[in-house]
Amino acid sequence: MAGHSKWANIKHRKAAQDAKRSKVWTRIIKELTIAARDGGPDPDSNPPLRLAIQNAKGANMHKETMERAIKKGSGEEAASLQTTTYEGYAPHGIALFVEATTDNLKRTVANVRMVFNKYNGSLGTNGCLSFVFDAKGVFTITNENLATKKPDELELELIDGGAEEVEKDEEITTIYTAFDDYGTMQRKLQELEIEAQATEIQQIPKITSALDIPEALEVLNIIEKFEELDDIQAVYHNLELTDELLEKLGE
Q: Is 144 helix (H, G, I), strand (E, B) or coil?
């Protein structure tokens, strides 16, 4: 039974990883389609498309999948796609900022409202969380891509490009900029010939709130339910991911 249980856990983790990758690909396909629709299929003259292709490569998306998404950008289906956001609260007062790309706003808002209601959250009005989140440019770069750069010189260059904060772990370096410096950092990385694994605007909480484990798990559950919706691109929150919570999630 122990062996069977272990195999069941392995299958569960693999299924979760596959589902997560599928969700990431779905989000990026929409980014590619919209970028191609709005600026044309040539990445050399379309910076948003160039960045979407970069994100797709960072997610190991197949070339054929990227090409289909870009081609789709010139079709009628792409014309109906639009982006929208929703703001509200999860259980225990945790703020949620939800981003969606959809071809049917009525369907999307109905699904979003259903998740808020079913999992003890509350949908607010757009702008109600402006005091909680700041829009930031976020650039994720593998440390391997920075290996040839001198740390002191690189730091000065990144500051010149608008870096407000730089976080580094064993594999990844993450750069944060103000929203207005997003384009400046893009140009700086191109100038330095540094290819980012992913670049995007994210909603970063100004302050976070810690909860007891059972309450935190309720919040993570509603976030997961949002992420399972096809139209949802990203969900941001201000729950503090404490060491105790991360240890619980790793069990």
A: helix
Q: Please name the amino acid found at residue 154.
A: L
Tokens 């893009």, residue located: 186
What is the rounded CA–CA span in Å between residue 56 and residue 68? 13
pLDDT tens-place values along the chain, 251 residues long? 333 333 333 333 333 444 455 567 778 888 888 888 888 888 888 888 888 888 888 888 888 988 988 888 877 667 778 889 999 999 999 999 999 989 899 999 999 999 999 999 999 999 999 999 999 999 999 999 999 999 999 999 999 999 999 999 888 999 999 999 999 999 999 999 998 888 888 999 999 999 999 999 999 999 999 988 989 988 999 999 898 988 888 76
End-to-end CA distance of the chain: 19
Any residues with CB less than 8 A from the CB of 222 and at least 6 apart, and which?
A: 90, 91, 96, 115, 116, 119, 120, 121
In the chain, alpha helices (H):
2-39, 47-58, 63-72, 76-79, 105-118, 151-160, 182-191, 213-227, 243-249
Tell me the backbone φ, ψ of residue 206, rounded to 5 degrees: -75, -35
Cα angle: 240, vertex 243, 245; to 5 degrees: 65
Instruction: Give strand pairing partners of 176.
Output: 138, 165
Please give the Cα distance from 42 to 35 (Å, whole number).
Answer: 10
Domains detected in the chain: 2-78 (1.10.10.200), 80-131+206-249 (3.30.70.980), 133-205 (3.30.70.980)
